[in-house]
Design a protein that fits this description.
This protein is mainly beta. About 10% of the residues lie in helices and about 35% in strands. The protein has one helix at about 20-25, and strands at about 1-5, 10, 35, 40, 55-60. The relative contact order is 0.30. Pfam families: ThiS (PF02597).
Length: about 70
């Protein structure tokens, strides 16, 4: 199954949970991370229950500090 993460194509087993995809991508530090699926921001408390579908587009945004 194809999932697009920040404009890069990845293959996963059928309908993985969002949190599983993050773990498989090595994204362990979740603090400061925002996620949108198909341009809809997903609340953090839903990350463990949302199943992805083929061709879903994820945008991962990490907050940074500085100025």
């Amino acid at each position: 199954m194809t999932v697009i993460i920040n404009d890069q194509i990845f293959e996963f087993p059928e309908n993985p949970l969002l949190i599983e995809v993050l773990n498989q991508q090595g994204i362990i530090e979740l603090r400061g991370l925002a996620i949108a699926i198909n341009e809809e921001v997903i609340p953090r408390d839903k990350w463990g229950s949302i199943k992805l579908k083929s061709n879903d587009q994820l945008m991962l945004i990490r907050a940074t500090q500085g100025g």
